[in-house]
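User: quick one
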Amino acid sequence: MSGGHDHAHGASDLALRVEALEALLVEKGLVDPAVVDEIVRHYEEDVGPMNGARVVARAWTDPAYKRRLLDDGPAALAELGFGGDEGSHLRVLENTPAVHNVVVCTLCSCYPWPVLGLPPAWYKSPAYRSRIVREPRTVLAEMGLELPAEVEVRVWDSSAEVRYLVLPARPDGTESLGLDDLAALVTRDAMIGVAKVRGPSDG
Amino acid sequence: MADEPPTAALDVEGPAAPPRRNGELVFEAPWESRLFGLTLSLHRAGLFEWEEFRRRLIEAIGTWERSRPSGEWSYYRCWAQAFEHLLADRDLCAPGELEAKTTAFASRPAGHDH
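Assistant: Done. Structure below.
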């Protein structure tokens, strides 16, 4: 911290401030540092898009599960052992040849943590949050997803009441793949709706 | 592994690699992860509803977007403001207390924590 160029509340100031905050909350008996350690470890190591990828792979291979997932997201997630923070209001949106779904949180950063982990930086950025609503096709194209004009784009704004997970289309050429191999194809971006799932031969 | 030199390059593939999701670190700095963990632990302890925090996060982000102060956009800076407001509103930690503690920490001699 010898730079001397920090603005008020620069990153190093914030680091100090958060350290002070933790010390105060520990002194007050409100926080156990070990609990904080465990929460951080859980979100860094245990929770992430691999959970959502398993949900998607299961839905691709099990029509009855897919129906339950679309009807009652939280219950279908719980079947696979996923739930908890931010997961109780999940709604799953199915991409079809006619409809492409994409998710945003225009006001902050609501996101289905149990199945996707914490949101990427771009999802939280002011640019994505404002532009994907106004000009979804342009933003998707900038992110590498060109959609035919006849495909309807639906933008879903997350809220306190509902979080969304996109069920992407299963790529061609994956008929012989098992659950694990299918899950390995599913990306975070596809489950937010800013990418498609590529088949094993798509490179 | 134990005799690895401390200056070894960041291992991005092996078991010691920092957590990445689609090539992105979950947190960009340690203070972000502490802040996240503190917020969630107080919520889980029943000290506030998540919606109470979310409302203040929306306020903090909205304030930044309307005023666009100098300095880069930082999502977790907004998070910190929201958390501080919540703690103050709930009488869990007064702003003056935090200022005093931060000032005290800032004046520690170098190397205090090792």
